[in-house]
Design brief:
With 315 residues, this protein is of the alpha/beta class. It has eleven helices and eight strands. An eight-stranded mixed beta sheet has the order 1-2-4-3-5-8-6-7, sandwiched between helices. Strand 1 and strand 2 form a beta hairpin. The longest helix is centred in the middle third of the chain and has 21 residues. It is globular, with a radius of gyration of 18 Å. The protein starts with a helix and ends with a helix.
């Protein structure tokens, strides 16, 4: 569902106007408009192609991509190969949980001020009961495609860009906590922001923004305001995803979410569409969390929001 150039331009203009109104800075208008123009459209077809690959991996490996299972490692190998081919410096961090070996994948884009690191991440593992295409293939695929868009654009931001795919989130944020706990205090201080994307294509989608760092929160809210899409503060997954270990050590965090097992209210259905009285994702942590369990519109909007935030916060 790639958006037209005219629509994208209109949305960018609307966000730029909102920024001027809130900042009151005419002098800041040109740089902000340039930053908006630089943020690319993320083709939803590309994101869905990654989801198809993750589904195929799960299908070939017992129906899941869970921690310590062959499907997880195959998922990591798929993402790593894409990043290596795109010019990233990748590293695999190994850990042990529940008697099984787990892996985090970290990808650094060359250049930028390494004393100011902008990170975007998502958990790559599924539960053992299903392939985990919305939870969290959706976030993983959007972060991957944003990273590939950085490479395609030859983007050279002021800050250093780092992307991450976490293992064993479903066992209690194990991979991301391991990463954070093994950073020196100096390296923790270099992370100027961590952006988390966990479930961004829920079939009965809502549009939720993390209520954490004000600057990151505003970045996402400005983007959706430019689309004319209302947002709400995210509460269902607060502290239950991979931003939590970063937040606990003082790293500014933010992120997006489209809902899990909570029920969509009538008021939410009125402003977002979908079905009231039904959960945002009826296949949450179930075998039916397949490629059929994705809302293309939500996936498209949120994938573009990932790119917008990465460009905006790293410029």
């Amino acid at each position: 569902m790639k958006l037209s150039a005219t629509w994208r331009a209109s949305a960018a203009a609307a966000v730029a106007t909102a920024t001027l109104l809130t900042s009151g800075s005419i002098a800041g208008a040109v740089p902000r408009a340039e930053a908006l123009a630089a943020a690319p459209d993320i083709p939803v077809a590309n994101v869905k192609a990654h989801l198809t690959q993750l589904q195929s991996i799960a299908t070939a490996n017992g129906g899941n991509r869970a921690h310590g299972r062959p499907g997880y490692k195959a998922s990591l190998d798929y993402v790593k190969a894409k990043l290596d081919a795109a010019g990233y410096t990748t590293s695999i961090q190994q850990f042990t949980s529940s008697g099984r070996t787990g892996y985090n994948l970290i990808a650094d884009w060359p250049g930028g001020d390494t004393n100011q690191v902008v990170m975007a991440g998502s958990h790559l593992d599924s539960v053992s009961s299903g392939p985990g295409i919305n939870d969290n293939g959706s976030g993983s695929a959007a972060v991957l495609e944003t990273a590939l868009a950085v490479s395609r654009a030859g983007y050279q931001p002021t800050k250093h860009l780092r992307f991450a795919w976490w293992g064993a989130e479903e066992l209690g944020l194990v991979g991301s906590r391991y990463y954070v706990n093994n950073l020196s205090s100096a390296n923790r201080a270099k992370i100027s922001g961590y952006l988390n994307f966990d479930m961004i294509g829920s079939p009965n989608a809502g549009y939720f923004v993390y209520d954490d760092d004000p600057a990151i929160e505003k970045t996402f809210k400005d983007y959706f305001a430019g689309l004319g899409v209302p947002t709400e503060i995210e509460t269902e997954g607060d502290g239950r995803s991979d931003h939590a270990p970063f937040k606990s050590v003082g790293v500014p965090v933010g992120g997006l979410f489209t809902g899990a097992s909570r029920t969509k209210t009538a008021a939410q259905a009125a402003k977002w569409g979908g079905t009231s009285g039904r959960s945002f994702d009826r296949c949450y942590h179930s075998s039916c969390d397949t490629t059929s369990n994705i809302n293309d519109t939500a996936l498209n909007r949120n994938s573009d929001a990932v790119a917008y935030a990465v460009w905006e916060l790293s410029d």
